[in-house]
Amino acid sequence: MLHIDKIKQAIPDEDRKSPTVILLLEVLEQQAEEILLLKEQIQQIRDENARLKKQKAKPKIKSSKMPKDPKEKDPSGKRPGSTKKKKTAELKIHETKRIAPESIPPGSIYKGVKPYTVQGIQIVNHNIRYELEQWLTPEGKIVSGQLSSEINGHFDNTIITYILYQYHHCHVTQPLLLEQLHEWDVDISKGQLNNILIENRNFFHDEKNNLLPAGLQFSSHINVDDTGARHNGKNGYCTHIGNEFFAWFSSTNSKSRINFLQLLRTGNTDYILNEDAFDYMHGQRLPKYAFNLLKNNSCKEFADSEEWNVHLRSLGISKPRHIKIATEGALLGCILGHGLPKTLVIVSDDAGQFNILNHALCWIHAERLLTKLVTPSAEKQKILEDVRKQVWQFYRELKDYKQSADAETKIQLRQKFDAIFTQHTQFQLLNLALQRLHSNKDELLLVLDRPEIPLHNNLSENDIREYVKRRKVSGSTRNENGRRCRDTFTSLKKTCRKLGVSFWQYLSDRISGENSILPLPQLVEQAIIASG
């Protein structure tokens, strides 16, 4: 990586305004960007090579490596959950049948009944034909009976709920779902099934869209990740944003930082140049000429991307890198200007597009840098294993610190981090890996200042696995409605699960129009506040 700042410091003040020097620095900055891009591409090639060799690109961490939380022991000595209870005590009984013995000897005394419960489910057609009466009034007009407001089309609420539940919750494909309904004598076509799945679902889309603002406003941290999501025959990406209380998915054609910032705008479309925007541009080394043009201009707010791009062109800012930094800054200004807390922590796996605000790194992803090292000898393998043991012991100490944070332990952990990741071993590749991890010290040790944040990004990876399973079962989406519905119902399903809400009951409640279950954004807000 080129150290542009060091080069700038080495240039005498009188030479810094020279056109040649300015041009040279811009070339070096562009090369630095290209080097970062090449590094990312090399890593992708390595992951693909590992896949072709049938090696797991993301190896699972053995449970023995991570300490398990101790379980409380029962005073009686019994294992947890071993207490016997009546399995059917709380079941609703729909029918009772009494069975007498085949023969009762004379003189026998009746001693009551012994209950035996059999659970079952009935799947039968229940078609209703409504006969709307037609009456001719004396004035010659026809008055007709009206259907109930609960009736919307030729399929009742239960069938619609079942179709949505099977497809979005159980991952049943449309062909199999259609075959199943036909076997149950439901007269439905492919087009009708598809319409039920993706048409007229604005109520659900609105509730999903309101999840993210609620989660961002009340959460201290979020976990983020993305995965591939092909759409209409082209590569795309799905971004996950969430934490213990909500999950929110959005599929787009990009996975850039600009795309991530646009998602964090939560529906706003404006671009704002405020102090936060200019601080970001300065930190990203936007050249002074472009920085001054933006800061000294009186226009600071823009309604949409069209107005923003016109403004950039009017100022003569045309280089892709300069446009990118300026746009990221204006988007960040919009996000913070609309109330996103500056204290929000973003936990990720070190993907560059997520590195904004207070960024924390996943320790499990960081440790994989050591796991992937190739050891040429048994001696170096022993060195690597010893260092990994030190790292995981340090990880356990961080977990303990989260439970009872104190200033003295905080200082000790910082010193121990330096001792582990600046040590020099007889394995040079290991030394370089440790040096790289040490350069991420602030992001790996953010938990010392914010003990409430997680040490890893497993939550986001587990959430987005839901999307990966759907992608493997059903393939890519083909139209915008299908793409949007996949994002919406995945978000609602995962959020229901986090909140302890039955997804079946939620769908039934919304389809019927009862709305007895509170809006999920409101439940998310209540759950976050209740957690302290």
Word description of this protein:
- It contains 22 helices and nine strands.
- It has 532 residues and is of the alpha/beta class.
- The chain has a domain at 363-456.
- It has a five-stranded mixed beta sheet with strand order 5-4-3-8-9, sandwiched between helices. It has a two-stranded antiparallel ribbon with strand order 1-2.
- Helix 6 packs across helix 20 (480-499), helix 9 runs antiparallel to helix 12 (320-337) and helix 20 (480-499) packs parallel to helix 22.
- It is globular, with a radius of gyration of 30 Å.
- Residues 58-67 have low confidence and may be disordered.
Topology (SSEs and partners):
Layout: H1 4-10, H2 19-52, E1 134-136, E2 142-144, H3 157-169, H4 174-183, H5 190-198, H6 202-209, H7 211-218, E3 221-228, E4 237-242, E5 247-252, H8 257-264, E6 271-272, H9 275-283, H10 288-296, E7 301-302, H11 305-315, H12 320-337, E8 345-348, E9 358-361, H13 363-371, H14 378-403, H15 407-421, H16 428-438, H17 441-444, H18 446-449, H19 458-474, H20 480-499, H21 503-512, H22 520-530
Parallel strand pairs: 3-8, 8-9
Antiparallel strand pairs: 1-2, 3-4, 4-5, 6-7
Helix pairs in contact: 3-21, 6-20, 7-22, 8-12, 9-12, 13-14, 14-15, 15-16, 20-22
